[in-house]
């Protein structure tokens, strides 16, 4: 159970979920400006998406570490029983 949860967190580090993919697909760049559903996005830069990915990876890595620390494998096996 815990191993599955941790592996899901690892998966989420590299793959955008459905909602995030839909949001990214709706961002259109034209003439150096970015728009979301026709509304101009202020301060939108490609670096922001890269920074978001870095923060997402760090957040999920820390979450997985804390799960492993709080629920040792021995307790995980007991919960499966």
Features:
4 helices; alpha+beta; single chain; 3-stranded antiparallel β-sheet; 14% strand; 81 residues; 3 strands; 68% helix
The topology string of helices and strands comes to HHEEEHH
Number of helical regions: 4
- Largest sheet: number of strands, sense, barrel closure: 3 strands, antiparallel
Strand order, largest beta sheet = 1-2-3
- What's the number of domains? 1
Percentage of β-strand residues: 5-15%
Integer-rounded radius of gyration: 18 Å
- Low confidence ranges: none
What is the general shape? elongated
What is the mean predicted local confidence, pLDDT?
82
Q: What distance separates the N and C termini?
A: 11 Å
The secondary structure category is alpha+beta
Number of strands: 3
Helical residue percent? 55-70%
Summarize the structure.
This protein is α+β, with helices and mostly antiparallel strands. It is built from four helices and three strands. It has a three-stranded antiparallel sheet.
Kindly describe this structure.
- Helix 1 (2-14) runs antiparallel to helix 3 (46-70).
- This protein has one domain.
- The protein has four helices and three strands, in the order ααβββαα.
- It is an alpha+beta fold and 81 residues long.
- A three-stranded antiparallel β-sheet has the order 1-2-3.
- A hairpin with a 2-residue loop joins strand 1 (27-30) and strand 2 (33-36).
- The mean pLDDT is 82.
């Amino acid at each position: 159970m815990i191993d599955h949860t941790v592996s899901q967190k690892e998966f989420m580090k590299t793959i955008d979920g459905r909602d995030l993919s839909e949001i990214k697909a709706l961002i259109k760049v034209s003439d150096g400006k970015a728009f979301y559903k026709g509304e101009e996005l202020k301060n939108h830069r490609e670096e922001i998406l890269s920074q978001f990915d870095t923060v997402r990876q760090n957040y999920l890595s820390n979450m997985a570490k804390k799960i492993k620390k709080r629920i040792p494998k021995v307790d995980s096996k007991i919960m499966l029983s």
